[in-house]
Design brief:
Layout lengths: L12 E7 L11 H8 L3 E7 L12 E2 L9 E2 L1 H11 L12 E11 L2 H8 L3 E5 L8 H7 L4 E6 L9 H12 L10 H4 L18 E2 L2 E2 L9 H19 L11 H9 L8
Parallel strand pairs: 1-2, 1-6, 5-6, 5-7
Antiparallel strand pairs: 3-4, 8-9
Helix pairs in contact: 2-4, 3-5
């Protein structure tokens, strides 16, 4: 008997990455992303940008206009790559692909973005190098797909590959069926706008340092309160600006007052 098994569901997410250095993305097939691929939740393809370069040197960059230093990635090469990977939709009702361009000039990538991306059907990451990708590529792509330019931090990397590894992992772990325990990401840092508190495991005492007694008490209400308080304290110490938009209850405000935090005026 031949044919395919109709009971196997289509992948939950198609994820394409275009890069001039495809070996850099090998970790995407390890750990949780690899598990998602094996389970048919994720369809991952890493594409060599140089496959769309036609000169003998397979070059993907050229000198910039305006006399500034560095090199800029060619629109001709990127244009052909995007045309092949995201052809024009058959009709206006089809879901648009999302092109994500990591760049230090982009807006900050957040956990909310990871959740949004995890709900899409097709993500395409474009890894820039040198001084970036010719802006016309981004402008033209936006006529037939959604485009977001994002940054993973206020620093400059050699290329977009590392940022793609970060964002792809943040997204893939949110796909249904990837994590064994749904609560694992529901209680993450930033899931409720705050940083996650400390975690402990066996042994109960290590080098004279015991696990907090409340975590061994079996009192779920007290444990939940302790976790909330530790999350609030850690956020106040490390990222106090996150508290400005947090939903804070009276008990939360008491905890924050104990560490010297007060709401900012306005």
């Amino acid at each position: 008997m031949t044919g395919t098994d109709d009971t196997v569901p289509a992948p939950r997410l198609r994820l394409d990455v275009v890069t001039a250095f495809p070996d850099y993305l090998a970790p995407l097939r390890l750990a949780l992303p690899g598990r998602a691929i094996d389970r048919g939740i994720l369809d991952l393809e890493v594409h060599d940008l140089r496959a769309w370069a036609h000169d003998v040197h397979r070059s993907v960059d050229d000198t910039p206009f305006g006399g500034v230093p560095g090199m800029v990635m060619r629109p001709t090469v990127w244009g052909e790559a995007l045309d092949e990977l995201v052809p024009p939709p058959a009709d206006d009702s089809a879901e648009r692909s999302l092109l994500i361009v990591p760049t230090p000039a982009g807006r900050p990538f957040t956990q909310d973005d990871a959740h949004r991306y995890a709900r899409r059907g097709h993500l395409l990451f474009a890894c820039g190098r040198y001084e970036g990708i010719d802006q016309r590529v981004i402008d033209e792509a936006s006529t037939r797909m959604d485009v977001e330019e994002v940054s993973i931090g206020d620093y400059v990397l050699i290329g977009g590959e590392v940022a793609v590894l970060v964002m792809a992992e943040a997204v893939v772990r949110l796909l249904p069926g990837v994590l064994g325990n749904q609560r694992s990401h529901e209680e993450d840092s930033f899931s409720d706008g705050l940083l996650e508190g400390p975690s402990y495991t066996r042994p109960e005492e290590w080098r004279g340092r015991p696990v907090p007694a409340v975590l061994r008490s079996g009192d779920h209400a007290k444990i939940a309160r302790w976790r909330r308080d530790e999350s609030l304290r850690r956020t106040a110490r490390r990222r106090p600006e996150l508290l400005d938009g947090a939903d804070l209850r009276p008990a939360d405000l008491e905890t924050l007052a104990s560490v010297g935090w007060t709401p900012r005026a306005g």
